[in-house]
Amino acid sequence: MNDNPHSTPDPGRCERQGFPEVIYCQNKTASQVADNLQALAAANGAAFGTRLDPSKADEVLATLPKATYDPEARTIAFGTLPQASGPSVAVITAGTSDIPVAAEAAATLAFLGHPTRRIHDVGVAGVHRLFERMEEIRQAAVVIVIAGMEGALPSVVGGLVGAPVIAVPTSVGYGAAFEGVAALLGMLNSCASGLTVVNIDNGFGAALAAHRILQSHHCP
Amino acid sequence: MNDNPHSTPDPGRCERQGFPEVIYCQNKTASQVADNLQALAAANGAAFGTRLDPSKADEVLATLPKATYDPEARTIAFGTLPQASGPSVAVITAGTSDIPVAAEAAATLAFLGHPTRRIHDVGVAGVHRLFERMEEIRQAAVVIVIAGMEGALPSVVGGLVGAPVIAVPTSVGYGAAFEGVAALLGMLNSCASGLTVVNIDNGFGAALAAHRILQSHHCP
Amino acid sequence: MNDNPHSTPDPGRCERQGFPEVIYCQNKTASQVADNLQALAAANGAAFGTRLDPSKADEVLATLPKATYDPEARTIAFGTLPQASGPSVAVITAGTSDIPVAAEAAATLAFLGHPTRRIHDVGVAGVHRLFERMEEIRQAAVVIVIAGMEGALPSVVGGLVGAPVIAVPTSVGYGAAFEGVAALLGMLNSCASGLTVVNIDNGFGAALAAHRILQSHHCP
Amino acid sequence: MNDNPHSTPDPGRCERQGFPEVIYCQNKTASQVADNLQALAAANGAAFGTRLDPSKADEVLATLPKATYDPEARTIAFGTLPQASGPSVAVITAGTSDIPVAAEAAATLAFLGHPTRRIHDVGVAGVHRLFERMEEIRQAAVVIVIAGMEGALPSVVGGLVGAPVIAVPTSVGYGAAFEGVAALLGMLNSCASGLTVVNIDNGFGAALAAHRILQSHHCP
Amino acid sequence: MNDNPHSTPDPGRCERQGFPEVIYCQNKTASQVADNLQALAAANGAAFGTRLDPSKADEVLATLPKATYDPEARTIAFGTLPQASGPSVAVITAGTSDIPVAAEAAATLAFLGHPTRRIHDVGVAGVHRLFERMEEIRQAAVVIVIAGMEGALPSVVGGLVGAPVIAVPTSVGYGAAFEGVAALLGMLNSCASGLTVVNIDNGFGAALAAHRILQSHHCP
Amino acid sequence: MNDNPHSTPDPGRCERQGFPEVIYCQNKTASQVADNLQALAAANGAAFGTRLDPSKADEVLATLPKATYDPEARTIAFGTLPQASGPSVAVITAGTSDIPVAAEAAATLAFLGHPTRRIHDVGVAGVHRLFERMEEIRQAAVVIVIAGMEGALPSVVGGLVGAPVIAVPTSVGYGAAFEGVAALLGMLNSCASGLTVVNIDNGFGAALAAHRILQSHHCP
Amino acid sequence: MNDNPHSTPDPGRCERQGFPEVIYCQNKTASQVADNLQALAAANGAAFGTRLDPSKADEVLATLPKATYDPEARTIAFGTLPQASGPSVAVITAGTSDIPVAAEAAATLAFLGHPTRRIHDVGVAGVHRLFERMEEIRQAAVVIVIAGMEGALPSVVGGLVGAPVIAVPTSVGYGAAFEGVAALLGMLNSCASGLTVVNIDNGFGAALAAHRILQSHHCP
Amino acid sequence: MNDNPHSTPDPGRCERQGFPEVIYCQNKTASQVADNLQALAAANGAAFGTRLDPSKADEVLATLPKATYDPEARTIAFGTLPQASGPSVAVITAGTSDIPVAAEAAATLAFLGHPTRRIHDVGVAGVHRLFERMEEIRQAAVVIVIAGMEGALPSVVGGLVGAPVIAVPTSVGYGAAFEGVAALLGMLNSCASGLTVVNIDNGFGAALAAHRILQSHHCP
Q1: Scanning C198, D4, F87, H133, which has its CA 20 to 30 A from the CA of C131?
Q2: Helix segments in C45-98, DSSP class H
C-alpha cells in the first residue's frame, strides 16, 4: 500500500539509475500532477513534469506557486535545479516550427544539469545553413536533431559527425506527413549509420537519452 | 469490337499526346505482351514494355527474336529507336541498390530519344559525394532522383537546383522501410519546394514525366 | 550565429534556384511569420507565406499593414509582385469543394508571375464537362489537376494531353477517403503515364513544380 | 451432428436464397473440395468452386474426372449447368491484366445462368476506348467494372449509365497500389453516385451480386 | 465557360442516368449550396443535398426559405418531391447509434420516390431480434443493412435473403473500430455471398445504389 | 414491431446469458439513453450505461433523477444494485493516466456484484512497484491489467500468475502510440501465454469478460 | 549462467503458474527445439511445441523419435500426456478453412488435460447451422470461436451463451482480409459483451486462456 | 567521375566520423559487394558487410577467399580486424528466436573493436530470468536489448539501469506482430525514460550507435 492511491511514485529511481522520475502530465489531473511534484521533490530535491497544458499549469501553480512553468516547452519544474556543467548537447531543428520540441529537450537537459547549444531552422532544403554551423555542432558530446515533414536532417548530420545522434521526429507537416509518421519512418531508415530514434515530438526522451550517454561518460 | 480481344491498343496516343503507349508487362502473359508489342510497333515504328521478368522475356523473344531485352532494367524494346538528342536528363541514385530503377528510367528515356547522365551512390550519408557531382547535375534540364530507405536525397538536390526534380522512391530497405513507403512519404513531405513524386520503383513514370516536360520545352 | 534566432532565412535561394524561399506559416507564431516576411522581402523585393489561418493573419497584418491576405487561399503576400507573363498554367478541380487548394496554387503562381486559367468542378462523374473545356486546357504549358475522393480526374486528363500534368490530391471526402489518402494513392497509381504527384492539399507545391518547369522552359 | 465432420454443407441455400452455396477452395484440401462438390451437386444438381489452384485442381479432377476446371478463372464446375438466358451482364476491365478476375466473374455468371458480354482494356488512360463500347454497355442490365491501379474506370462508367454498377478492385499494380488497396479506396470514394464495391479480386462476389439483382428483377 | 464559375452543374444527368445530380454540401459554402440547389431544381423540378451541417443549413434556408432541412439525416430538399411508389427498400440498423445514417438513406430514397421500411437495433448480439423482423425484410426488393463496430449484421442478413443486400459501415464505435474501418473490412470480407458495400456512413450512396437496381427493375 | 422504435431492447439477455444488456451511450441521444435505462430497469431491476459524457448525463439525470452518474468512469446506474460477493477481481493500471478505464471496469464489476481490488501506477519502468503488490494480486480470481503506451504490464503480470489475465490497452500516450494501437498490438503479441485482450479503453468489456469467467466459476 | 546458452528455460513456470512453458518453434532451429523439449520434459514430465513446420519436425523427430508430431496442428508433444478430465471446451470454426487453427487449440488443450468438443463450418452465412449445435455448445465451460474473413461468428455465439468466449481471428481470406486483420478488428469491436480476443491464428493462446479459466475454476 | 561507376565509396568516413563505411549487401550483386569490400579495405585496412545471403556469400568468397562469412549474423569481414578492448556492450535477447539479430550486432561490435557480453532468452514472460543476469548487465557501458513480439524487454531493462539502452525490435512473431511493427511501436512508446530505438532487425545499427557512444566516451 502507499499513501497516494492514484500514483505509486518511484523515489529510488535516482539512486538506481542516476536520474529521477519525471511526471508525464498529459492525462493526469492538476491535483495528481501537484501531488507527484511534491512527492518527488521531497525525495530528490527537485521535480519536473512534461506535456503540461497552460490551463492545467495555472491550476498546478495555484497549489505550488514556487513551481516554474515554461510555456514554450510546456514543462514545469519545482525545487532547486542544478548548475549546468560538463560536455554540452547540441539541439538542432530543421525548421522554426520544430522549436517547441527543442524547447522541451532543452528544459529537460537544464533540469538534469547539462549545458545546451540550440541551433534552429537549418533543414536540408538549404543545406548550406547547416554547414555554417558545423563547427559548433562538432563541439557537442551528443547531438539531438529534430525534424518534421520528411525528417531528413538527422541523416545529413549523422553523416558528418561521429558523436551519438538522437533523432526526434515531429508532427510538423500536413497531409501525408501523418502527424509525424513520415519523419519517424525516415529516421528509422536513415542511410547514416548508428542513428537512434525516439517517439514523435519526444524532446524529453531525447534529452534523457543524452543524459544516459553523458552519465556513462563520467562514471563507469 | 476489336481484333485483339484481350487488349484494346491505343495507337493514336502518339499523335494525341506526343508519346506512344507503353506496355506494362507484369500481369500479362508472354503472348499478350508479344501481341501488343507487334500492334504498337506496327502503328508507331517502335514499341516498348516494362516490368518484364527474365523468364517471360525468353518466351517473348522466342516469338519476336528482333526485340531487345535489358535484364537490368527489365524492359523490352522492339522496332527502330530514335537517336538521342536535345537537353539531357540527370538520373541520380542515392545508393548502388537503386540502380535497377535508374536503369528502367534510362531505358525509357532512350526509347523516347533523350540523352541521359547517370550518377550513382551519392546519398546523404556522405553528402560531399553529391557536391562533387553538382556541376554535371546543373547541366541537366530535368533531374530524376531515386532513393530508397529514408528517401532524403531529393530534398537535398531539390534545394540546390532550379530545374524540375522528379523524385522516385524505391523499395530498397527493410523493416520500417515498408517496401518503399518510408521513402515515398519522405518525398511527398519534402521541405524542398516544388518536388514531384511518382510511385515506388516507378522509373518508367519518372522518365515519361521528364519527357512531358522536355516536349513542352520544345513545342508550345 | 544569425540575428534572427528562431529562423535561418535563405535569401540566396532566388539566385541559386530561380525562386525565393516561401514561408510555411502553419506551425509558426504570428511574430515569426512577420519577421520572416520582412527578412525575405528585404532580400527579394517580395515575400509570400502559405497556410496562414485568418486569426493569425490578423495579427500579422497588425504588424505589416501593407501585406495582403487571401482568405480563400490562406496565403499572404508582402512587397511588389510581378506582372504575369509567359505560358499559362491550367488549374483544374474535380469538384467545387477542391477550390481552396486551387486558390493556393493560383496565388502562388501569381506570386511567381505566371498567368493561370482556372476550371472548376469537371470531375469524372460527368466526364462531358471536362471535354467541353479541353480546348482551353490544351493551350496550357503545364496542367495542375486537383481532386479529392477517388482522385480520378488526373488520370483522364493525363490521357488527353501531352503537357506535364501535376496531380494534387485533396482531403475532400469522408470515411475511407482517409483525409486524402485515397486520392493520393489513386494518383500515384494512375494508369496514365508520366503524371507526377505532390502532397495532399499541396497547391503551393504544385505551383512551384510548374514554376520549375516553366523556368527550365525559358532558361537552360 | 453431420456425416462430414470437416464441413457443414448448406444444401437449403438454393431454396432459401435462390442460389446455391459455392465452395471457396483456397484454404481447403483437395479432398475437402471434392467432398463438398459432391455433397452440393447431390443436393442442387450442380456445384461450383472458386480460387482453386491448378495443382490442387489436378488432385480434385483425379477424384471427380467429370468436373471441369477453368484455369484462367481458377474455378471448377461439377454437374449440369444451366443454359444462359435473361438480361445480360457487362463485364468490363480497365486493363488486360485484370482478365483473370473478369474470368472468375464470367464463370460464376455462367454457372448461375446469365449471359455475359466481356469488354477488356478500356481504362481511363485512353478514355475514347470506353466510349466506343458504350452502346454495348448500355444494353446490359448490370455492369461489373474491374480495375486495378487507381481503379478509376468505375467512376467514369458510373457517370454514364443508370444501371447498377458493381466495382471490383484488383491487385494489379505495384508499389503504392498496395495489392489492390488503392483501387479499393478509389472505388469506395467514387464521385459517381450509387456504385457498390466488393472485395479485392472478388469476381465471384460481383457476379453473385449481379445475380441477386437479376433475380429480384424476375421474381418479387 | 459557364455562368456559375465555382461549379459546373450536370443538369443532363437525369436524362442520361435516370437520377439527378445530388449536392455534396460538406466542403461547400452556404452560397455555393444555394446556387446549386437552385440550378438543379430549375433543370429537374427538385434538388437535394447531403451532409449539410445545421448551422450551414440555417444560412441556406435564409436564402431558400422553401427548402426543407432534415436535421437527423442532415439533408436538404428543394422543389417538388415525388410520391413514393413501387417496390420498397428495407433500411435496417444494427444499433440505435446507426440511425443518422439510416435517416440519410431514407431521405434519399424519399427524394427518389421509393417507399422505405425502417427497422432499428437488431444487431447480432441478440440475433433473435432480427428473426422477429424477417418477414418484413423478405418483402423488400432491396435490403440496406447499416452497422458500425464489427459490422456483422449484413453477413447474417445476407445469408437469409436472396434480394440484393447493400452493406453500409458506420463510424459508430471507438478504439480499434478506427472510425468505421473495422465495419468496412468486415463487410468487404463477408462470408455471405454477393453482398456489396459502400463507403463508411454513406447512407446516400446505398440509397442511390438501390435506386439503380429498382430503376433497372422497371425499365430495361 | 416494438413500442420503442429507435431501439429493440433485449430484456431476455439476463436469463439467456446471466447478465443484462448494458447501454452504450456514446452515439445515442439523452432521451434514447433514458428510454433504454427505464426499459431495462423495468425488466431486470437495474440498468447500466457506459461512455456517457457529463453534459449528456445532466440531461439524463433531469429525466431520471434517481440514476447515479460516476464522472470518473463516465457510467450511469439506475435501479437497485447487488451487494458485492464472491471471488474478487484485481484491476491494475500501469499508470495514473489509465485510471478512467479502471474506473469503468470497477463500476461495471460493481453493477454485476463482484468485489474489486484496484492497484494503480505499477508499470514496468519501475517493476519493483508491481512486486510489492503481488501478494494482493495473487488473491484475485481474475486479473484485469490496464496499460497505455507500450502496454507491457500484462506480459509481466501474465508471467507471474496462473489466473485469467484480461489485458486492456488504453489510448494514453502520444505520437507513435497511435491512440492505443501500440498497446493493443503489444498485448496481442504478448510472450506471456494465454492472455486475452479487449478493445482499446474497453474497461467495460474486460469487466464483463471477468463476469463470464466468475459466472462459469459458480454455475456449471 | 546456464548450460544451454541459446535459451533460458523456465522450468518453474509449472509451479508458479499451473502450466508449463511451451516452445514457440517458428524462428528456432531444429536443434534448439529438441534441446528445449528435452529440458522441459526433464523438469515437467512432458513438453510441447507449436508452429513447427513439417520439414523441421522431421529433423526434431530424428533426434527425439519418441516425440509425436501432429501435422494438421503443426504441434509436437514429448513425454507422458495427462488423461483429459474436467469441464470441456468447445472449439468452433466458422469455416472448413479455419480447421488448422482449431487443431492447434485442440492439441494444446489435450496437452493440458482438457476434454474438447470440436464443431466446424457453422459460420454466419448459414446461421441455422450454428443453432443446430447450440445445445452441445451450451454444455461447454469455455467456448473458443475461430473465424477468418469478417470474423462475425464470435459475436453471434457471444450473444447466445453466458460462458467465457475466446475469439480467435484467422488469416483465412484474401484482399481486404489483410491476413486476418479484418477478423481481428471485427472481434475487438464485437457488439456482444465480454468477448476476449487473442492474436491472429493463435489457437495455442486461446487454449491456454481456457486453461487459465478452468484452472481458476478448480483451485482458488 | 569515379573509377567504380556502380558505387561511390566514402573512404574518408573513418577520419571524418571515427568509423568506416559498412556495406549493405541486400540489394547489391555479388560483384558489387566484392568491389566495395576491396575498395574500402584498401582505404581502411578492413571492410565489413551486412545482410549477405549465404548463396551470394559463396559468390563473394569465390572472388575474395580471404574474407570471412558469419552465417548466423549474415555478415562478411575482409582484412585485419582489431583486438577488442575498452568498456563492454551487453547484447540481450528476449527470446532464442532473436539470436540472429544479436549475432549481427555482435559481429559489428567485433569489427569495431568492442568486447561484447551476450545474454539470451530472458524475456518478460519469466522476468526472474532477467534478474538473475542483472549484475552482468550493470557492468556494461551500453546495453542493446533485442526483442520481437510485444517488445517489452527494453522497458524493463530501461527501468533498471542508468546506462544508455538501445532497443532493437525484431520481426519475430506472427499475425498482429506485423513483421516487427508491434515491437517497434512498443519500444517507441516505452514508459522507461530515455530509451532509443533503431529499425526492425537492425542489429548493425544498434552496434554502431553503441560505437558512437563509446567513441564519445574516449575522445572528446
Answers
A1: C198
A2: 54-63
Q: Which residues pair with A197 in a beta bridge?
A: A167, H197
Q: Which residue has the cell 532524403?
A: B152
Which chain C residues have a beta carbon less than 8 Å from that of B211? 194
DSSP G174-216: -GGGGGGHHHHHHHHT-SSTT-EE--TT-HHHHHHHHHHHHHH
Q: What is d(CA E214, CA D163) in angstroms, rounded to the nearest whole number?
A: 9
* DSSP β-bridge partners for residue C161: none
Q: Which of B120, B94, B108 is nearest to B172 (CA)?
A: B94
Q: What is the DSSP letter of C81?
A: P
User: What residues form DSSP beta bridges with D87?
Assistant: none
Asked if residue G168 lies in contact with residue G203, where contact means CB atoms within 8 angstroms, the answer is yes
B116 touches chain A (CB under 8 A): no
**Locate cell 566495395: which residue?**
H36
At position A191, the amino acid (one-letter code) is C
CA distance D127 to D59: 44
| Rounded Cα gap, residues F154 and F16, in angstroms | 32
Q: CB H201 to CB B175 under 8 A?
A: yes
Interchain contact, H160 vs F189, CB within 8 Å: no
Strand-pair partners of A147 = A169
Please provide the size of chain B in residues. Answer: 220
- Residue C172 contacts residue C139 (beta carbons within 8 Å): no
E189 touches F: beta carbon within 8 Å? no
Distance CA F57, CA E198 (A): 34
Closest listed residue to residue A45, CA positions, set A86, A4, A89, A15: A15
Alpha-carbon torsion, ordered E72, E101, E12, C124, to 10 deg: 130
How is residue H79 annotated by DSSP?
A: E
State the DSSP H helix or E strand holding residue G81, giving kind and residue range, or none if neither.
none
φ/ψ of residue G116, rounded to 5: -130, 145
Cα–Cα dist A19/G155, whole Å: 48
- CA atoms within 13 Å, Cβ hemisphere of G179: 9
Q: What is the pTM of this model?
A: 0.95
Cell 508487362 appears where? Answer: B25
Instruction: Provide the residue type at B75 as one letter.
Output: T
Give the residue among A65, A43, A44, A61 at the shortest CA–CA distance from A52.
Answer: A61
C-alpha cell at H169: 525490435
Q: What are the tens digits of pLDDT across the range G156-213?
A: 999 999 999 999 999 999 999 999 999 999 999 999 999 999 999 999 999 999 999 9
Q: Is E185 on the interface with C (CB under 8 A)?
A: no
Q: Which residues pair with residue D196 across a beta bridge?
A: D166
Cβ-defined contact of E201 to C174 (cutoff 8 Å): yes
Whether residue H175 and residue G10 make contact (CB cut-off 8 A), yes or no, is no
Q: D73, D49 in Cβ contact below 8 A?
A: no
Cell digits for E7? Answer: 461549379
> Of E160, E177, E186, which is closest to G151 when you measure between CB atoms?
E186
Tens digits of per-residue pLDDT, A41-95? 999 999 999 999 999 999 999 999 999 999 999 999 999 999 999 999 999 999 9
Say whether B7 and D121 touch across the interface (CB within 8 A). yes
Contacts of D12 in chain G (CB under 8 A): 128
Q: Which residues contact G136 (CB under 8 A, 6 or more apart)?
A: G90, G117, G119
- Cα separation, G180 vs D73, whole angstroms: 24
Residues comprising chain C, all counted: 220
ipTM here = 0.94
* Residue G177 at interface with chain D, using a CB cutoff of 8 Å: yes
Name the residue of chain E whose CA is nearest to D217's CA.
E217
F126–A6 C-beta distance less than 8 A = no
Q: What is the pLDDT of residues B166-189, one digit of tens each?
A: 999 999 999 999 999 999 999 999
The DSSP annotation for H39-60 comes to HHHHHHSEEEEES--HHHHHHH
Pick A191's closest partner by Cβ from B150, B178, B188: B150
